[in-house]
Amino acid sequence: MTTATLLQIAAMGAVVAALVTNLLVPLVRRLAHAYSAIDRPDGERKSHEAAVPRLGGIAVGAGLAFGAAVPVAFHWDRWMAVVPRGELVAFAVAMTIVFLVGLVDDLLGLSPLKKLAGEVVAAVVLVEAGWQFSYFWLPLFGQVDLGVGGWLVSVVWLVGVTNAINLLDGLDGLAAGVVAIIAGSLAAYSIWVGNLGSVALLAAMTGACVGFLRHNWEPARIFLGDSGSLVLGFLLASISLHSTFKAEATVAILLPLLALGLPVIDTLLVMGVRFVEQSGRSVPARVRRMVEADRQHLHHLLGNLVPRRRGIVLALWGTAAVFCAMALLVVMEGAPELGLVLLAVQIVAIFLLRHLGFARAARAQADKERARLREELQEIR
């Protein structure tokens, strides 16, 4: 299939997804109010000032479905040649499970353990159908066959990326914007290697996120909710697993690692901080603490450096764009060594940003304490 045809497919999928998502949001907002699916500020983790509907995943999911289905319908035979029917059915089932888990959580609320269980079930369904990593590239060793270990690595990857995107959804427009940038970059790579299946899905994801951003930009009139953020994360992770996406180049496995660097690395660093800060407790308690919600993610810490939330979102969009550019550079140059170097650069960059946020917060707290002490001394005098 020619590059021009793939570009037409990508444009069609993105436009259809954006239109469908944009048009459905007002209806979904009314639905959320009818079922009391409202995200209310709690003064601790949630920074928005007013109650906001949280069923945006319905509009995004519909946009994704229509955006991918319309161009694929014109090339169904070629699509089926790329993704066998059994794998396609498993993909649809897994995506449905993830969406329903998120929807139930938005409507009724689910414990973290129940959500995790649903995500693992969806991941196992997909991996059992053949969507999994089979090898990896390591310095000095070259291409390493993961063997049976590929099954576990793939399940962990699916669940990990899904939750990384979910946790990224903490500021108006942040998750939708970052996912649009990542999906757009991966779509460009898919066009470059002539991958029909990935082009349709990634273009639809990009369009759906852009269509949703019109309503999710500060001040947001609707949130993605778990039904949206979990689906977007699971879809990104799924596409990077399929053999057609990785093509034949060993270096291509570094593309999703680098492109998803912002949400994945930040999540891993947060989990590490949570585990270490509970050093006096039992190991099970420290492990539970790793998955508990708090305000230690990068977008929370940047609030100590950037006064306006919109500035934080734009800064993180720019960071995600730079990381995605790094990923495309690596695969187009075919240089795995460069990819590992850039991955290390990403880790250091996010670590430094987090450190600056912590340091500024500590100084602010110290200033408040000194001011309090001065007031107490003045009262004594």
Give a verbal description of the structure.
This protein has one domain (3-380). The chain is mainly alpha-helical and 381 residues long. The mean pLDDT is 81. Helix 2 packs antiparallel against helix 8 and helix 12 (261-277) packs antiparallel against helix 13 (283-290). The termini are far apart. It has a two-stranded antiparallel ribbon with strand order 1-2. The protein has a two-stranded antiparallel sheet with strand order 3-4. The longest helix has 45 residues, at 336-380. The protein has helices spanning 3-34, 56-73, 76-82, 85-107, 112-128, 149-168, 174-193, 196-216, 225-241, 243-246, 254-259, 261-277, 283-290, 298-301, 309-333, 336-380; strands at 38-39, 52-53, 135-138, 142-145. The protein is globular and about 85 Å long. It has 16 helices and 4 strands.
